[in-house]
């Protein structure tokens, strides 16, 4: 199965991604999924449509992860976004960016690097900070 994914970018169309077999029974239009666009940029896109037709022009990349258990956008809202994009002469990705709260958007990665000058004393940290610091002591970069 293949999904047409709406990305939070000013792109003229949606892009098709392959749905891994493990998620084919789970995914539905309106759910957020993590995909790679370009060489290595990761984005949280929204499934616009699902179909069985494989693109003839290219081999689609696979969806990396399903971020929701239920759709966060209805099919009616997706149709409204399409109308808005047409009416205001912008892309659906731009409408998506304006419509969704920022915590629903995954548009970059954060890299944590151990600051060696801090030392090994982790007593001042709360539980979550301690877990991150302990992982950094082991791996040096997350």
What separation lies between the terminal Cα atoms? 33 Å
**What is the CA-based Rg, rounded?**
19 Å
What structural class results from the helix and strand content? alpha+beta
Give the beta-strand count. Answer: 5
| Helix coverage percent | 10-25%
Largest pleated sheet: 5 strands, antiparallel
Note the overall shape.
elongated
- Quaternary structure state of the chains depicted: single chain
> Helix count?
3
Overall pLDDT confidence: 86
The fraction of residues assigned to DSSP E strands is 15-25%
Spatial order of strands in the largest sheet: 2-1-4-3-5
Give the ordered list of helices and strands: EEEEEHHH
Low-confidence stretches: none
SSE map:
Elements (H helix, E strand, L loop, with lengths): L1 E5 L8 E4 L13 E6 L3 E11 L13 E2 L8 H13 L4 H8 L27 H13 L3
Helix pairs in contact: 1-2
């Amino acid at each position: 199965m293949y999904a047409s994914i709406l990305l939070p970018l000013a792109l003229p169309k949606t892009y098709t991604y392959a749905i891994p077999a493990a998620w084919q029974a789970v995914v539905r239009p309106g759910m957020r999924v993590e995909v790679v666009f370009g060489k290595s940029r990761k984005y949280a896109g929204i499934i616009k449509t699902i179909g069985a037709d494989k693109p003839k022009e290219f081999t689609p990349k696979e969806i990396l992860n399903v971020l929701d258990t239920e759709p966060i956008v209805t099919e009616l809202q997706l149709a409204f976004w399409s109308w808005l994009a047409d009416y205001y002469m912008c892309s659906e990705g731009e409408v998506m960016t304006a419509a969704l709260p920022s915590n629903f958007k995954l548009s970059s990665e954060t890299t944590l690097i151990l600051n060696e000058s801090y030392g090994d004393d982790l007593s001042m940290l709360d539980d979550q900070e301690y877990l991150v610091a302990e992982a950094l002591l082991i791996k040096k970069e997350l």
